[in-house]
Amino acid sequence: MKVLHLCLCCPYNEYWGYQDNLIPKFNVKDGHEVTVITTILTDSVNRVGYDKVVAGECNLTTGEKLIRYLHLT
């Protein structure tokens, strides 16, 4: 089954231990083809505010396809 996770309103940090990361990871372990679509925002290194990363696509080592889009308001 193809599974799509949409994370449209918050920062997304690869490989962290939150539900945003764990649910797609276990969907892959269950044999599904998983794509995560999210913004270009990540938590800053010092955890005060947000950083921006480059928009684009990549495959995570946990098996999900990650698509970061540039949200223009």
Question: How many individual β-strands?
Answer: 6
The spatial strand order of the largest sheet comes to: 1-2-6-5
Q: What's the overall average pLDDT, rounded?
A: 90
Q: Treating each run of at least 4 consecutive H or I residues as one helix, how many helices? A: 1
- The SSE string, one letter per element, is EHEEEEE
Low-confidence stretches: none
Give helix % range.
10-25%
Principal-axes geometry comes out as: globular
Kindly provide the radius of gyration, computed on alpha-carbon positions and rounded to a whole number of angstroms.
Answer: 12 Å
| End-to-end C-alpha gap | 33 Å
Beta-strand content: 35-45%
SS class: alpha/beta
For the sheet with most strands, the description reads: 4 strands, mixed
Description:
The structure is a single chain. With 73 residues, the protein is of the alpha/beta class. It is built from one helix and six strands; from the N terminus they run E-H-E-E-E-E-E.
Summarize the model shown.
It is built from 1 helix and 6 strands, in the order βαβββββ.
